[in-house]
Amino acid sequence: LASKPAWRGTQADAYLASQRKFPFSMQTPPSSKREMVVVITGAASGLGYLLAELFVDAHATVIGLDIDERGLREARTNLGKGFFDVVCDLSDATAISTAFEGIITLHSGVDVLINNAGIVAGKHLLDLTTADIDRTFRINVISHFHTTRAVLPSMIERGSGHIVTVASAGGIVATPRLSAYSSSKFAAIGFDDALRTEMKRLGHPISTTLIAPFFIGTGMFEGVKTRFPLLLPILKPERVARKAFRAIVRKKRRLIMPWFVYSSFPLRLLPVDLFDWVVDFFGITRTMDEFKGRG
Length: 295
Fold this sequence. Notes:
Strand content: 5-15%
Oligomer: single chain
Helix content: 40-55%
Number of helices: 9
Largest sheet: 7 strands, parallel
Order of helices and strands: HEHEHEHEHEHEHEHH
Distance between the termini: 17 Å
């Protein structure tokens, strides 16, 4: 687990207090008599753990879901009484349903859901097994359907709620050895788009935030390289967590990191071969050449 960064603690609280124009608080309306409840999937390590740390520091009640029981125990020890751990296999729809029934019963609803859990196989298409493909999609995007469907009815009834989708820049531009991962992240971005527009069309005041970072320097993407680190740096986990936290608090619709990734949108207007040449020039097609991952 990450060590406690210097920007933890009272700085998170002070940051929230300074944002007077934000339509968001770590406290629910006084009539509810409870703290904001934040559920984070994949909270045992990496970005999920760092977000849990920030929200606990901001006096929210945080429930972390993960299949990593040992990691969740360590998170509970480090984060203290504001953190509750739920061991859950996010590739299993029944397990998700059971976990959220308990969460909603015990905590009287969920205010913010952060769909963060993700895995990567890092293999070429013909090297992927059926199990690799199935598990990648179940965790990286299908779980979003199940978790969101679990919390959305009570959010709509209450008249407030926030769904956060953690996708990836790999869901904007795909690369070799990421066919399963990128496809699942493209789908996650589509899920956020559909959810946002559906809530607007139906008149439900539910906020959505999409977070799509370039590679983060965690064990998940150990060994990835970048040709132009000034334009496409391997992102520091603490910086991503801090910016994601702010985006959620501000109810920002979309956070893509770094800014250079936004250039991919107008580049899509180019002929496909020219677009591919640009992507190759910036080394994006070779980022996974030395990938090792956690294994």
